[in-house]
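Convert to structure. Protein one:
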Amino acid sequence: MTTNENILPFLDLPPIPNNRVVALAYDGLCTFEFGIVAEIFGLSRPEMGPNWYRFATAAIEPGPLRAQGGLSVTANGGTELLADAGLIVVPGWKGAESPVPPELTQALRAAHARGARLASICSGAFVLAATGLLDHRAATTHWRYAEAFSRRHPNVDLRPEVLYIDEGQILTSAGSAAGMDLGLHIIRRDFGAEAANSVARRLVMPAHREGGQAQFLPRPVPRNHEAARLSPLIESIRTNLTETPSVKSLATRAGLSERTFLRRFNEATGTTPIRFLAEARLTRAAELLESGTDSIDAVAEASGFSSAALLRHHFHARYGLSPSAWRRRFSRSSA
């Protein structure tokens, strides 16, 4: 591994069952959402080795296709590309009231039946819902579409407060930039935290954002001096994982009442201090499992858990794998 901070380390990722990612293109394409998919899955990343994703764009209707911003789109092919895809992404949609072509819903259902994963960004959830595959499953979309989505698809368990939801074979993300969070989550799921961290670094964004859409709903902007108070505290929590500071002590350090501190902390992170700390501990544990050979007890201690049993409990609840299984799947030595 190089020590030059300006060069990303070569990871040589292990293969996954199907690394073909196909993004849908349609007339009126949401340029930003499509750009997220192309950036995360379609950009050449030689540091990842030969097993990185293979990317293509599939037009769902005859051209010419227009995209927001006065652009024209030429796709790699049509919906026949979905037959070989391991992951199909719907980057937004024409609108909440725009019908989804039956041919597209049939193609998506067929892809799902043979094992392909389906993902949506923002209003793309309307397309996945139209297939019926989201019925009685949890899903999310942009908070501004929540009412229209629930009205059109009452059988879907809509959760507009979160950034993304992973239902295994079907994944949905909230508004626009939350697609980056979902993309990094998929990378983390396929190739591990180190690969996701590498991509996040190139995107100049955190590998995981705590909280949910609640922090982005219209609300008064926090005063600058309050934000300045909280930034050092947030970083302190993230870097001192073996400590469990009380809300009272944190509020005192910020010079705020406990009630005001909790409100400002939620505005800044979308969650509570204890949940923020728990997520930071799990992220650190995943990194240690991938990059080292320390025992599970040592990883638990270094990441702030009082015991290996507690680490196993929270780790499985968060990632669906035990720490040992995570290490076997994602460790550099295994790769």
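Protein two, convert as well:
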Amino acid sequence: MADDYDLDSGPDPATLAAAAPEDPDAARPVYAVGIGPGNLDYLTPRGERAIREADVVVGFETVVEFVADRTDADLLTCGYRDESETLATFAERVASGERGAAVLMGDPNHSGYQFVGKVQRTVDAPVRVVPGISSLQVAASRARTPMEDTTFVTLHKSGDLSADRERLRRAVGERHLLVLPRPYDVMPGDAAADLLESGAAPDLTAIVYERLTHDDEARTATTLAGLADHAGGDGADGTPFSDLSVLVVRRD
């Protein structure tokens, strides 16, 4: 197992995940599979095959639950507290010759590289990413904000967010914004308030999509100023929005 890391001082495991291209000829890779936004109609055939053919699957409990019926593999679930221990067990299984798959929500390329990096640090095997359909892509489709005209920033990660928030401040009003909030300390209202403080126009259209593609999908359309009224909450009870939220700010 790799050395411990501290996200506030480095190294960020996402940096490791992005350090070099994949080796296309690597034998018996561990797959890091994006399962989509939770509705399995959006799980790609290639992702489903990687999960189905695995002997052992690892991921956060809420993610693994979505694909449990799509595989006969042993399922290793974790939370943040036992993540390192669970990944160590997964690595041992892979080292013994079993085929492994790690599962992530959405598409690993949008907001999953910290977990991909943790898997890569732990297993003694190449890791190959299987892209998925992200809730961000669904939100962009719903809001009609094409990606080529949009600045995407994920705040849904550990560590310092200063550089990410500065990217949003520079782009607001010039480009559409597509934001993954961080539950529950940087939620849509907090992001909106930060943009207003940086000088963004208060009447810009702001849309929060929740639980995209699920039966209880919800949409809140307002202005940046209206959304900022929900800033400053503390925990799940301090915001009207769920932890499965995507924020869109149109450039109007």
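The longest helix spans residues 83-95. Residues 1-9 have pLDDT under 50 and may be disordered.
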